[in-house]
Specification:
The complex is a heterodimer.
Chain A lengths: L1 H36 L5 H15 L4 H18 L11 H68 L5 H32 L8 E4 H15 L6 E3 L6 E4 L1 H18 L6 E8 L2 E8 L6 H4 L8 H4 L9 H14 L4 E5 L5 E8 L9
Parallel strand pairs in A: 2-4
Antiparallel strand pairs in A: 1-3, 4-5, 5-7, 6-7
Chain B lengths: L6 E5 L3 H13 L3 E5 L2 H11 L3 E5 L7 H9 L6 E5 L4 H9 L4 E4 L4 H21 L6 E4 L2 E4 L4 E4 L2 E3 L3 H12 L5 E2 H8 L6 H17 L10 E4 L3 E4 L2
Classes of the chains: A alpha+beta, B alpha/beta.
């Protein structure tokens, strides 16, 4: 709330200064015209133009109308007979005043409408993005559900004719797809937690080593054969975060490498401190990321394009946009790049916290 | 033989999950008693006095925590909480009210049975041996000499500070039980779990883990559950 107030205040200060600046310009230009060129006729036009500009560049009606009044006064006071005195008896002054106010009101009205229109458009774009995401998700949900449903019915109804090996295969399929569904649902929960209500995440201090410990244990449960080369700072690092969410970012990024980096032989996770920040780096030596995907990697809306119909088990788009959303909500940055040699690298940062010296 | 089976009271309102867990337990050689509500569970608990309770927190009639309180009033029967809520606050709440461990849904069969075994074993161990003076705690290569206030790893003494030793002793006395931050802080420093004291605990813990040679991502002596607490892996 306070931040919003501050923003509002800053905005009106800026608008007010802008108004004064434009009016001063108009005033001096008019003085110039009057004294050097000895021309009188354009002075009202100059002020009308000033009012017009102010109405365009400030928010709402207020500044336009104020500047119309100030303009009328200035023209009346300085540039019409009697000079440097106010005189409202002359109908010409009154008419130019009314015209200025009218211009201010209409211009502001048009600009406001235009701005609203833009806001609606942005909102509808977001809506489209969400719809795309939803479509991709429901498609992606249906595939593993089909496996689970079909395999379990097959086992229930025809298990007699099956060999032990066949049964095992079906069960393995059920397990794999169920695990995949669990991860997908976790991702969706995180997105809705952050994206929808703009709920502020609650950060608690977490020891880096414990975080990595927990992440790697979970990762190993899913991919027991994937080795991870680990490098952490020697000293204790404490980072305020929503641990469940950051855990998910790390697991998503590691999993992303396992599923998408073809030909990978080495996967590494490195964390180091840079001043008040911790930098997390996930590096692989696989096939790298396609150039055209690199720009839109963290944007969920784009994922439908390369998530073609056969993309079962490739929720990279969703996973990565979840990562971006989570890191952004923590006030950190995330980036992806291709390594010079081979493979891809993902990096994100989080603010660290000073720790207590007395451990006793 | 049947009399020698452990009795496990399973409280879960969802039929599918109850059947599933019951099957897992039956095939592993436990005797299961089934309840689908808090009220039914209370009656069954009183008449059967089970060795272990597996409790789902979201029950139709009353919150599962009611049963937890009811049992803890006069008994130390181990309780494993089964919960769909991935929220730390719920886990911590249940543990602080006396639950021995928890499992978050969805879980695998191996995971569930491992927890059941661990809880039953530790309960029997502490019930029989108590903590006698001159007692020793042994776990794989780890040895704690309570009288000498020493911790040994592969017969080599590990230099721990007073606080670090106290934490190790506490965890070993509650081996296998998930100890929340609040429980440890209360036992070691006697205060409540504020952010500052949690940080103090975390830093001490990091040092202990390093001294024990625990490496992140491997099966270690001390297991950490982010935002919840620590457990000595029994």
């Amino acid at each position: 709330m306070r931040k919003e107030d501050k923003q509002k205040y800053g905005r009106s200060l800026k608008d007010g200064l802008l108004m004064l600046a434009i009016l001063c310009c108009a005033f001096f230009i008019s003085l110039l015209f009057q004294h050097i060129f000895r021309v009188q006729e354009h002075i009202t036009t100059i002020f009308v133009f000033a009012v017009f500009l102010i109405s365009i560049f400030t928010e709402g009606f207020l500044y336009g109308i104020i500047s119309a009044f100030l303009g009328t006064l200035a023209v009346n006071y300085a540039f019409t007979f009697p000079y440097f005195a106010l005189d409202f008896a002359i109908p010409v002054n009154l008419i130019s005043g009314i015209i200025m106010v009218a211009i201010a009101v209409f211009t502001s009205a048009i600009i406001t409408k235009l701005k609203n229109h833009e806001a609606v458009q942005i909102e509808s774009e977001r809506e489209t993005m969400r719809a795309n995401l939803l479509r991709a998700v429901s498609h992606d949900l249906r595939t593993p559900l089909t496996t689970i449903y079909a395999s379990s019915t097959a086992l229930l109804e025809n298990s007699r004719g099956m060999t032990g090996e066949q049964k095992e295969k079906l069960l393995e399929g059920i397990k794999e797809d169920a695990q995949w569904l669990v991860r997908m649902v976790e991702n969706l929960l995180s997105i809705t937690k952050i994206d929808s209500g703009q709920v502020k995440i609650t950060k608690t201090p977490v020891v880096l080593e414990e975080l990595i410990d927990s992440v790697i244990l979970k990762f190993k449960k899913r991919y027991p054969h994937q080795e991870i080369i680990l490098k952490l700072p020697e000293q204790v690092v404490i980072i305020p975060m929503d641990a469940i969410l950051i855990e998910q970012v790390l697991i998503n990024l590691l999993e992303n490498a396992v599923q998408h980096a073809k030909g990978m032989t080495k996967l590494s996770l490195k964390v180091w401190e840079e001043e008040t920040q911790a930098v997390f780096e996930i590096k692989d030596d696989g096939c790298g990321i396609l150039k055209k995907q690199l720009d839109s990697l963290f944007v969920g809306g784009e994922l439908t394009e390369y998530e073609a119909a056969d993309s079962h088990k490739k929720n990279a788009g969703i996973g990565l946009s979840v990562c971006a959303t989570i890191i952004k909500a923590h006030g950190g940055t995330i980036e992806a790049a291709n390594r010079k040699s081979k493979g891809a690298v993902f990096r994100f940062t989080l603010d660290t916290e000073r720790i207590w010296d007395d451990t006793e | 033989m049947i009399q020698n089976k452990y009795k496990i009271l399973l409280v879960e309102d969802e039929d599918n999950i109850r059947n599933l867990v019951a099957t897992m337990l039956d095939t592993a050689g436990y005797q299961t008693i089934l309840a689908d509500s808090c009220t039914a569970a209370k009656t069954l608990y009183v008449s059967y006095l089970p060795d272990l309770i597996i409790l789902d927190l979201g029950l139709p009639d009353l919150d599962g925590l009611h049963l937890l309180d009811f049992v803890r009033k006069d008994s130390l029967t181990p309780i494993i909480v089964l919960s769909a809520r991935a929220d730390e606050a719920d886990k911590v709440g249940a543990l602080d009210r006396g639950a021995n461990d928890y499992i978050t849904k969805p879980f695998g069969s191996g995971e569930l049975l491992a927890r059941v075994r661990a809880v039953l074993r530790n309960n029997r161990f502490s019930a029989q041996e108590g903590r006698l003076p001159g007692g020793r705690f042994l776990l794989k290569d780890l040895e704690i000499d309570y009288d000498g206030r020493r911790v040994l790893l592969k017969n080599q003494e590990i230099k721990l500070t007073q606080t670090e030793y106290n934490i190790m002793a506490l965890l070993s006395e509650n081996c296998g039980k998930m100890m929340t931050y609040a429980a440890i802080i209360k036992a070691i420093w006697g205060g409540s779990a504020q952010e500052g004291s949690i940080k103090k605990l975390q830093v001490n813990m990091a040092n202990i883990r390093k001294k024990l040679g625990d490496k992140p991502g491997e099966i270690n002596y001390i297991v950490n559950e982010l935002g919840v607490g620590y457990r000595l892996n029994g």
